[in-house]
Amino acid sequence: MEIQRSQPHTPTSSDARMMAVAQDLEAAFLAEMLKSIDFGKQPEGFGGGSGEDQFASFMREEQARRMTAAGGIGLAQTLFEAMTGGQNVEARD
């Protein structure tokens, strides 16, 4: 009985696109988590009004993107592996 070895998965441009989508999804998830803890909300003493609340969302989104770029919580990698069929692909560089 001969054991066949599977060919290693070679990353493709579609893999790069899938990882980018997975990272965007992780960033959106993290932004919502930051929103739930009122990250970026200024104390009432500043009195910035509704404009301040709108710009706080930009800050949360950028913070979430940077967290994801720095490795995040691993959600992007998990999603990527699920989308590629779990072919032991390490796409984070």
Automatic annotation (TrEMBL):
Residues 33-80 form the Flagellar protein FlgJ N-terminal domain. It comes from the Bacteria. This is Chemotactic signal-response protein CheL. It comes from Pseudooctadecabacter jejudonensis.
